[in-house]
């Protein structure tokens, strides 16, 4: 299956279990892999035969900067649902949501959740 990859989209959201996270917010990075057949688009050179990256970005932004969620798992699931319901030619997607500064003790670069979802037949 062909893929469109959009990497390290950066957003500011208010997701987390702690009240400070919901009040102050923080950065989130989102990566998506969109599985679709790109052969027709490659031959036609017509955007109607592909998936509009700008539209993908806006959908991901709407979820990530939108309503506060407790879990990054829920953010990822909401992004996948939005993508799969919006793009008819999208057969599956992988969504990775990275939270670079979670308020938990220890030394690490970030925490992240990655999910794979596909359309039901």
Model description:
The protein has 121 residues and is of the alpha+beta class. The protein has a single domain (2-118), classed as GTP cyclohydrolase I, C-terminal domain/NADPH-dependent 7-cyano-7-deazaguanine reductase, N-terminal domain (GTP Cyclohydrolase I, domain 2, 2-Layer Sandwich), CATH 3.30.1130.10. 32% of the residues lie in helices and 32% in strands. It is built from 4 helices and 4 strands. The chain has helices spanning 19-24, 39-44, 53-64, 72-86; strands at residues 2-13, 26-36, 92-99, 111-118. Strands 1-2-3-4 form a 4-stranded antiparallel beta sheet. Helix 3 (53-64) runs antiparallel to helix 4 (72-86). The longest helix is centred in the middle third of the chain and has 15 residues, at 72-86. It is elongated. 21% of the residues are buried.
> At the third CATH level, what is the topology name?
GTP Cyclohydrolase I, domain 2
Structural class: alpha+beta
Order of helices and strands: EHEHHHEE
- Which whole number gives the mean pLDDT? 95
CATH class: Alpha Beta
